[in-house]
Amino acid sequence: MIHHKTYYSKKIQYKGRDLFIEGPIPPDFLSSLKFHSKLTSFRIADEQKEALIEIAGLDEGRINIVRDDDLIVGYVTFVYPDPLERWSEGKMDNLIELGAIEVAPEYRGAQLGKNLLRLSMMDDAMEDYIIFTTEYYWHWDLKGSGLDVWKYRDMMEKMMNAGGLEWYATDDPEICSHPANCLMVRVGKRIDQDSLQRFDQIRFHNRFMF
Question: What is the pTM of this model?
Answer without folding.
Answer: 0.92
